[in-house]
Design goal:
Shape: globular
Number of strands: 6
Structural class: mainly alpha
Strand content: under 5%
Order of helices and strands: HHHEHHHHHEHHEHEEEHHHHHHH
Radius of gyration: 23 Å
Number of helices: 18
Length: 523
């Protein structure tokens, strides 16, 4: 399906006319599939489209987000090393193309489920949630992007306008409000069509409202919308919580659970197995920042005693110096010796993230906890920031180790962990850090949130750009003046296929450069 759509798009963009083609049979007869169906149902589109989206997210998390955020370091001095902020223009193409392509199917789900003969409020709501999820990834990655006119090629619009990011956010908020109302009725869906919640519509509703909180928090620093979005956060949590159910534990965590299969063409085989060679999966070295904190904290996720067969739950292979990483952003010509890396399926097909069923994370309960911890610490909602913070730690560890820290914020194991790691909550701390060596409430929250967002598309990168936390070490070999890239370039094909709207977007937003801040980053 994807291949056929691409062919159609490229034919149209190239300006070819089907009328110039000669044929001896009726055109419709030639192009009718005698075996296939002329239309599909909403349930038939959901699972394969989610798999395609998650494949894009996981693969780009691995080779882009993880490199920027010092989870891994792809050692070498060649050009285009992401960990050194050397971003090639071609890095922009994959996510843009795949997100927009799969949005077509997601929008189709809403359209199909809105027809009188196939009316289903739940599929409509689920579609709106997924649309908001993908549009948020697009706008947070690129800034101003097509939104109101996107995915309308069937209607003859092949050059959509680029909406301003502020308007996109307001549009996503509307979609999520609609989704919450549509999902109230709990209209049943086909269980086998849903590889995330297996037909539990109430959990989709929780995902939508949790995503709503993520996006509200992301723009909360913009003065022009801050009062409105902060009031909405309070409305969701304190005022109308019964009308806005959210994730409260890992039973609500949204994940596309892989089968653990190493059969690359099976639908629910992890993209890490289907698209990454086993001899390549362990190539990146682990970054010092990522692994050193886990070691210092004696974190259960890296301890062999909490793993399986002596392999820790994060499936990290020790190096010659044990569990150790390498510095990111090092000066070219000073390549460090590789230490720890992730196990690959060639080491152990079961005990590797490459075949792990739990890597397909859309959004988890721990992220919601840390959103609430930040909101409480800033005085926006009632409740204890400490309680939310401890619950976030517990839920983040519980996701990977379900038998560890099962009692949430009140579990004695959480208290013992934070005290031993010297990361306990302290209400006397300032809200923000005055220097890298100063502990603060935001630093505590975002250090832990960083690990809760492990493998979750680009969320570590987005949150760092919003908050400047966690405090990452700056190597002397960094480009872009040592400043974290603020966005990706627009794809080259967009510049050539939609030149007028591309130029308008650049004139409004700023230069098409990785240093140009998107709307919610600007003061």
């Amino acid at each position: 399906m994807r291949k056929n759509k691409n062919i159609i798009i490229y034919i149209i963009l190239a300006g070819l006319s089907l009328s110039t083609l000669s044929c001896t049979k009726d055109f419709n007869e030639v192009n009718t599939d005698p075996l296939g169906k002329t239309e599909v149902n909403a349930d038939q589109l959901l699972a394969p489209t989610l798999v395609n989206l998650m494949s894009t997210n996981m693969l780009r998390n691995r080779n882009f987000n993880n490199e920027l955020m010092q989870v891994t370091v792809d050692l070498g001095d060649a050009e285009g090393k992401t960990f050194r902020y050397d971003i090639r223009r071609s890095a922009a193409d994959n996510t843009w193309n795949n997100w927009y392509l799969n949005l077509t199917n997601i929008v189709d789900i809403q359209n199909i489920a809105s027809k009188p003969e196939k009316l289903n409020k739940s599929y409509q709501g689920i579609s709106l949630i997924i649309q908001s999820w993908i549009y948020s990834l697009l706008t947070d990655t690129y800034g101003d992007v097509p939104f109101t006119e996107a995915n309308k090629g069937k209607e003859g619009n092949y050059q959509p306008v680029f909406d301003k990011q502020k308007d996109i956010y307001l549009g996503m908020f509307e979609k999520l409000e609609q989704a919450n109302n549509l999902l109230k009725d709990g209209t049943p869906i086909v269980v086998t069509s849903d590889p995330v919640f297996y037909g539990d519509v109430s959990k989709w509703r929780r995902l939508g409202n949790s995503l709503y909180l993520r996006l509200l928090l992301r723009v909360s620093g913009k003065a022009e919308v801050s009062p409105t979005v902060i009031a909405k956060i309070k409305d969701i949590i304190d005022v109308n919580s019964a009308n806005y159910p959210i994730m409260v534990n890992n039973q609500h965590t949204a994940k596309l659970q892989w089968t653990g299969s190493n059969v690359s063409n099976a639908l629910l085989t992890s993209p890490f197995m289907a698209n990454v060679r086993v001899n390549d999966f362990y190539v990146p070295a682990l970054g010092e920042f990522f692994i050193n904190n886990l070691v210092v904290w004696n974190d259960p996720r890296i301890l062999q005693s909490y793993g399986t067969s002596g392999i820790n739950r994060f499936r990290i292979r020790p190096g010659t110096n044990g569990y150790a990483g390498v510095p990111s952003g090092y000066v070219p010509g000073n390549e460090p010796a590789k230490q720890s890396s992730f196990y690959s399926a060639s080491d152990n097909a079961v005990l590797s993230l490459q075949t792990d069923p739990y890597t397909g994370i859309i959004m988890n309960a721990a992220e919601v906890d840390f959103i609430l911890a930040e909101a409480a610490a800033k005085g926006w909602i009632s409740g204890s920031a400490q309680t939310y913070y401890y619950k976030g730690i517990a839920d983040a560890i519980n996701y990977w180790l379900p038998t560890v820290m099962t009692g949430g914020a009140t579990d004695p194991a959480v208290t013992a962990y934070v005290n031993a790691a010297d990361i306990e909550w302290n209400n006397a701390l300032p809200l923000n850090s005055a220097s890298p060596n100063t502990m603060s409430k935001m630093l505590l929250i975002h250090q832990q949130k960083y690990y809760a967002l492990f493998l979750v598309d680009f969320q570590q990168w987005f949150e760092y750009r919003r908050s400047a936390y966690p405090i990452l070490p700056k190597g002397l070999g960094l480009l872009n003046n040592g400043i974290m890239p603020a966005r990706l370039f627009y794809p080259v094909v967009t510049q050539s296929a939609n030149p007028t709207n591309y130029k308008n977007a650049v004139a409004t937003q700023g230069a098409d450069a990785i240093s140009t801040q998107v709307w919610w980053q600007k003061p």
